[in-house]
Amino acid sequence: MARRVLFALGMCVAYSAVLFAQKVTSEFDDTLDFRKFKTFAVRDGQMNSPSPALNNELTKKRVQTAIERALTAKGLTKADGAPDLNVFFTLASRGVVEREEVPAGPRGLRTRVERVPAIEGSLVIGFRDPATRSLVWRGIASDDKANPIDISKKLDDWVKKIVDKYPPKK
Fold first, then answer.
1. Do residues 88 and 47 make contact, with C-beta atoms less than 8 angstroms apart?
2. Which terminal residue of the chain has fewer beta carbons within 10 Å of its beta carbon, N or C?
3. According to the CATH classification, is domain 22-98+115-163 in 1.20.120.80?
4. Distance separating alpha carbons of residues 60 and 117, to the nearest angstrom
């Protein structure tokens, strides 16, 4: 009896880690001195999602505003003229089917595979140097959620976590 309880508890912990697994990564041009970038302008944002909850003008404006707030909090200034950095972003989502193994059979000694639908969402924010037109920094946040509305609720958090990785530490 105690084994089954421990097994069930272990499975709950393992599944909860998968459900809350948000990934945030960044990459950058390590030959640059990022201290020279003082101003920014948010340029075009791409919305690549079949879901109306994510692919709309209000969500696009919300992401753009969150990026502006986060970069301003980092000490950069929003430029009216020519900026030091052009900021681009892409929000995408797609449906995925995940496999989960759950206890089954007598006393839970066997396993059964269940297919669970989910939405995989990602937000990519890229900084380009307008002088060279090259990508100098990029941050990516991704997560799996049950529906697009859950992804929409996490967008402000994603932007904050991505921008927290700028400027890069060499």
1. no
2. N
3. no
4. 25
Instruction: Give pTM, 2 decimals.
Output: 0.76
Cβ-defined contacts of 57-64 (< 8 Å, 24+): 59/91, 59/152, 59/155, 60/91, 62/155, 62/156, 63/89, 63/91, 63/123, 63/155, 63/159, 64/89
**Interval 79-115: pLDDT, tens:** 988 999 999 999 988 777 777 777 777 777 778 788 7
Which pLDDT value is given to residue 21?
A: 65
Taken in order 162, 153, 73, 64, is the CA torsion positive or negative? positive
Tokens for 1? 């009896």
Question: What is the C-alpha R_g of the chain?
Answer: 20
SS3 label, residue 1: coil
Could you give the C-alpha distances from 110 to 14, 102, 113, in angstroms and in order? 17, 8, 10
